[in-house]
Amino acid sequence: MIDIHFGPQICGDLTSAASREWLVPDGLGGYAMGTVGGLRTRRYHGLLVVPGETPASRQVGLVSLDPAVTLPSGARVRLGAHEWASGDVDPRGFELLERFDLIDGLPRWRWRIGAVVIERELAMLPGRSCVAVVHRLVAGGPVRLELSAACTWRDAHGERRADGPVPQVEAVADGAVVEGAYRLAGPGWAPEGQWWLGVHHREEANRGLHPDEDLWYAGRFSGELERPGDTVSVRAWAGRLDEEPPPAEEIVATARRRNRQVVATAKPADDVEATLALAADAFVVRTDQAAVDVVAGYPWFGAWSRDTMISYEGLFLCTGRADEGRELLRAYAATLSEGMLANTADTGRVEYNTVDGTLWFLHAVSRHVTVTGDTDLGDELLPALCAVIDAHTAGTRYGIRVDPADGLLTQGAAGTALTWMDARVYGVPVTPRTGKPVEVNALWINGLAGLAELTELAGQDAGELWRLHRQATASFRERFPAPAGWLHDVLDAPAPAYPLGGAALHDDDALRPNQLLAWSLPYAPMEPDEATLRRVAGGLLTPLGPRSLAPDSTEFVGRHRGGPADRDGGYHQGTVWPWLLGPYVDAARRGKMSVDDVFVGVEAHLMEYGLGSVSETADGLAPHTATGCPFQAWSVAELLRVRRKSQ
After folding, report:
1. Are 185 and 175 in contact (CB under 8 A)?
2. Domain Glycogen debranching enzyme C-terminal, which positions (predicted)?
3. CB-neighbour burial class of residue 187 (10 A; exposed 0-12, middle 13-18, buried 19+)
4. Measured in whole angstroms, how far is the alpha carbon of residue 258 from the centre of its chain?
């Protein structure tokens, strides 16, 4: 894997150290997460974040273990880091960091206090909500180490305040149980019990959200580090509290071995691919029901079917996980209703509100059978997939139907945004894209051809599917090219002066990246030409991927910043989306264009934001600062997929 490490100039500079985040997942949808400098900048940061019934319903438990070293002289040096509502940062342990490393996906910190050197390693036990934190004396000593446990128990999206109930902490043999939900265990436990008031999260402030919370100082662990090699370790776990996990150092070793095996199974061609393979592993989880699922992004997303299906080939087929992928596809097929795939359970209920999620599902099944030769799965799912085509032809929810006049797929209903550009501001869609979106119809044509091939592999007649495919393809080629020199983004869209359902329609020729799918999919409706692709790239391509709207558009938003309304308003109006590098690279290759230099910026990004991973979004204007989730499934999956194709 690529070597990710930082010295004192990064670690000791708060802005630099606090803007680089690490993630250690538990394989269930929970995680430990923080920054290089140890400062918690998000309400989502913590050492034990526990998944609920769905990956999105997480609870924050153990927030931090703040080290303090008592030297032989009697001096006490604090190595933690907190920012307070007053603006103070205290303590400032990051100033004593001489090195941070991410090794096999696990973080390691190294503090130097004169001749005394202390390391911290952290890992989660794979498949269990359990974190192990190991502190080791590397040089110097003897010293005494104390670890102050800051705790809470709350929804990951919220905060807890001192004007509410005091957390219940029950003493047990080697530590404590907090709120009956998770247990802390380590040496020399001494209970405390007081509020730390006004802990500040700078990233929440930047996102226009409430930035402060109060933490409960539950107590501290302590131990002597007399000679190099001595350790003081703490474990925290949720779930089966009476079932003690292995020793902390064993948990670290187990996690390290597993991560190495994940990489080996993927058979990477180089260090970047190895890093992406391990990054991909974070998103593949087993839920409470032991079902395989995909977390769309950390730290705040759960499972979204559109993201899952776009990510499918990269996460499963490029990493040697086809058996798990098969299980996932079968489970998702069971959610089909009226020809539509369930979108998400993040809200606690099943929703059917996308026009493209189901079409990406057709694509994922087709790719699975093509890549693996698993025709048994194709045969098994064929009736359900054919029912999808029938439902779309006849018409299903939200006006999704095939227009018999041209065979293209149209969609839209008042107040809805059914494509991947689905942001809303105060409930109003920013980009409703009502009508016939270009990528939806590219996916429709791709799905018809893929399903026709599956039908023929099953020994059945695919004549009607091929007829629908020919009609839609001919109409696509005739209607989507725009006078501007690229493809229309939406055909038959309501004219701006008319509400949905009004008499006037127009064809929207805004320069957006959705058209890339018209050239990139396996059964794409059009062959790309270099001149068109260069126009598209000239307006959209950045070092981290294509923008969602060209900068010369009057609606372009160059900075994905501010409160929720500001961020949602710019989400698809110029913000960069790294996952779109996948379609761009595929289209460019089909157009005989070189893409050797396309990956340079995004590969450097692996060490800039979410360490070893790829962010959800970035600003549309230079320097294209990363935004959104630091760890995003489809961003990682698509980069891994198209890089692997280039090997």
Report:
1. yes
2. 279-641
3. middle
4. 21
